[in-house]
User: Which sequence fits this backbone?
């Protein structure tokens, strides 16, 4: 299977690494909005092209993995490139998924391509676990926790505060809340009871630290509904200790069965990831395999992880997966 | 969707309870090898028939859930009843799955039916998690732990020991092994390091307790490779404290990504179940919905959980699952 990568940031580089780990997958080309000469990739012998030349390569690529941002890139890019390629994206603005699905589905069907949107871990693997667990335990409660991990949006919000030079924000699930859910206690949890937020801030010289801390802690939407801790550190410390891109989280379904609902069950799925973009990329490559196969069976239109039978993700045959994984 | 249950033990009764929790599913009939007059079920207005009369009801039932044992019942029953019905079973003898699949596939294709085998939690949900995690992280290690839960086979083995009147055996995962795997340490674990076995034994009056304990602890295959604890208790205590049918377990995939495999990731899926048969039954009913839909789309032959796109399990529409679960 020949893969193209559109957009060579953390996610695109993660796809490149994931391709290397899968013997049946080949990286064919990288497309960039920057000057191609300025983009150095890791894989020897693979060309970097301008995104403007993408159409010329449409017959060389089985699946194009679009590594753009959900806010402005993907709503425009995914329908556009579905005209030339089978595509896959990691669109993660939950509220806009129905509209994005409709746009991509139209483009895919008009051009006989298959497109998979909102792939990764949330949306993605977490969504799958919500679906499976809800189908199995129709009477119950869902819980999703994120972290410990860096939230880009919250880190950006910190950096917009006056007097802040740089900053990183960690979202951390509250251990006692996890335990309560894990024990099947079905707690009603407020926002504050589910996650705490920890901020590492580099202040400008002479800035009013107390004022910065107040402003962060009281910021509506981002911090005011949480117990937030603010640590002031040096630029060197931030670089040394907080440049990681770890993430993860937990999906629970806690439900009951029995004639009188007398038996409790807890399903838990969790991820602990050193690199958020590399894990997401690994999910994308597995699903690229799946949609390439489905396309070769004549399937087109827009899909999500819900529509893909698990066997399509594996490089192994049906006989092999039944013998070794069932 | 109209469901038939074949075999009314713990599993069949669990299916009956699960049907009650799903508004789009109706219990149509229960078939038994016993005298139907002796079988009292929970659902008002549903008839119990002899298994010998099953063919007469073939047009009243969309999916027949076969609740038999894997050792001798299912290898014979599933291919047999696939002639008349779409069927689903929980065949769990891992080593014989390829043969069972071939037999059922032949019968299903000859008769235009769809059959799903080896459904439940292991094989079933655990298998799915092994497959997804292996596809996402091709370089890594798999770990499966079972328990805490009652092992029927080991409880039976205890009861065969001379001087034992009754007994129950719990399989318990070793906490330090779980923690090591969870931390991404990729330990090499022996059988003894993964699980311990705890036995609750009711001895015959005057029996030699030391001899019983020795015999249990040294029993090859069942106990000799494990750290085993034996507790002697009264019949009343056994009945009062050890008649539960709890179970559960953990599936881990611990893998690496990155150009130089520098990033670690741990995927964990776990189940904590008050009732092993009721949870299995709940999985069976969700998959019965899936195969009924697939059959209405013209699909036939033998399938496993690997072949079923997740969306088919949910009573919700594609629009609904994209809006609420993705």
Assistant:
């Amino acid at each position: 299977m020949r893969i193209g990568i559109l957009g060579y940031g953390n996610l695109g580089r993660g796809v490149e690494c994931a391709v290397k780990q899968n013997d049946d997958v080949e990286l064919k080309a990288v497309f960039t909005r920057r000057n191609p000469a300025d983009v150095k990739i890791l894989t020897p012998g693979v060309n970097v092209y301008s995104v403007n030349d993408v159409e010329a390569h449409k017959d060389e690529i089985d699946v194009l993995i679009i590594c753009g941002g959900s806010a402005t890139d993907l709503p425009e890019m995914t329908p556009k490139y579905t005209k030339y390629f089978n595509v896959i994206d990691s669109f993660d603005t939950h509220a806009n998924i129905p509209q994005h699905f409709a746009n991509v589905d139209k483009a895919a069907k008009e051009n006989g391509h298959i497109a998979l949107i909102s792939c990764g871990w949330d949306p993605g693997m977490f969504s799958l676990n919500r679906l499976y667990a809800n189908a199995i335990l129709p009477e119950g409660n869902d819980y999703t926790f994120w972290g410990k991990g860096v939230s880009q949006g919250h880190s950006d919000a910190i950096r917009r505060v006056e007097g802040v030079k740089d900053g990183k924000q960690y979202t951390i699930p509250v251990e006692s809340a996890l335990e309560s859910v894990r024990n099947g206690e079905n707690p009603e949890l407020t926002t504050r009871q589910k996650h705490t937020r920890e901020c590492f801030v580099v202040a400008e010289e002479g800035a009013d630290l107390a004022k910065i801390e107040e402003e962060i802690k009281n910021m509506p939407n981002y911090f005011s509904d949480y117990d937030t801790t603010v640590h002031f550190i040096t630029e060197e410390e931030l670089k040394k200790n907080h440049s990681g891109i770890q993430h993860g989280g937990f999906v629970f379904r806690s439900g009951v069965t029995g004639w009188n609902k007398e038996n409790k069950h807890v399903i838990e799925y969790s991820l602990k990831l050193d690199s958020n973009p590399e894990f997401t990329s690994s999910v994308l490559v597995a699903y690229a395999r799946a949609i390439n196969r489905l396309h070769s069976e004549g399937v087109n239109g827009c899909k999500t992880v819900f529509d893909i039978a698990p066997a399509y993700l594996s490089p192994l045959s049906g006989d092999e997966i039944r013998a070794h994984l069932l």
In short: The mean pLDDT of chain B is 97. The CA atoms of residues 144 and 251 of chain B lie 5 Å apart. The longest strand of chain B covers residues 247-257. The first helix of chain B runs from residue 10 to 20.
